[in-house]
User: Which sequence fits this backbone?
């Protein structure tokens, strides 16, 4: 089923009544669960332990992620995945480093239940290093390289694609992030700046004095991922 209408609260991650349980605390849009399980089964047959790292996240959860990073309670990374010195960053530098990897609440594709982050659980376990969900782990020599290659060859037949496959100057390249195209497109088309702005204004997000004056450009650069 392709959704034709998506409510404002749905794309903002403030309401989602079409989620189903995907196991291990994960939830997905009801239209996505069967294609995901079919893709997971096909990967398993090819020796790939494709598992979810992240699935649906609501507005409040996304706010908490942003606020932890704003407060320096979680590491900030540059576009290459290298850690940045938190204390040396201005508020504006801090904001852009966060948005390179983590969306503003209301602006995350994970709000829709159509988008997932995946990894090869068995390969990561056997690798034994600290898994950080960065691009190098999905390139040659990384524990999820075989998964990344398998996805490139197979994901489209199950309806998935990578929305962050190229760095445009917005969101960093995320080879682990997959989107179920047919359902996600309805959410994409429903987004608008006015609703996003109102949600941020009414939220408990930190850094509002830095965020709000430049929200239109942040919306285009990161939420729509139009980049620079």
Assistant:
């Amino acid at each position: 089923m392709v959704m034709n209408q998506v409510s404002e609260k749905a794309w903002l991650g403030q309401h989602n009544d079409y989620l189903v349980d995907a196991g291990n605390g994960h939830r997905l849009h009801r239209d996505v669960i069967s294609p995901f399980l079919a893709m997971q089964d096909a990967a398993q047959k090819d020796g790939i332990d494709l598992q979810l790292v992240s699935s649906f996240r609501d507005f409040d959860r996304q706010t908490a992620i942003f606020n932890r990073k704003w407060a320096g309670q979680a590491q900030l990374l540059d576009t290459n995945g290298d850690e940045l010195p938190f204390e040396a960053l201005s508020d504006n530098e801090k904001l852009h480093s966060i948005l390179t990897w983590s969306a503003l609440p209301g602006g995350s594709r994970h709000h829709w239940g159509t988008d997932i982050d995946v990894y090869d659980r068995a390969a990561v376990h056997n690798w034994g290093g600290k898994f950080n969900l960065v691009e190098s782990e999905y390139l040659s020599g990384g524990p999820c390289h075989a998964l990344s290659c398998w996805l490139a060859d197979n994901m489209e037949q199950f309806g998935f694609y990578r929305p962050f496959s190229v760095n445009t100057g917005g969101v960093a390249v995320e080879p682990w992030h997959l989107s179920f195209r047919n359902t996600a497109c309805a959410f994409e088309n429903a987004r608008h700046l006015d609703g996003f702005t109102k949600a941020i204004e009414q939220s408990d997000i930190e850094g509002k004095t830095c965020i709000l004056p430049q929200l239109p450009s942040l919306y285009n650069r990161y939420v729509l991922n139009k980049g620079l």
Notes: Residues 8-223 form a domain with the Muramoyl-pentapeptide Carboxypeptidase; domain 2 fold (CATH 3.30.1380.10). The longest helix spans residues 33-45.
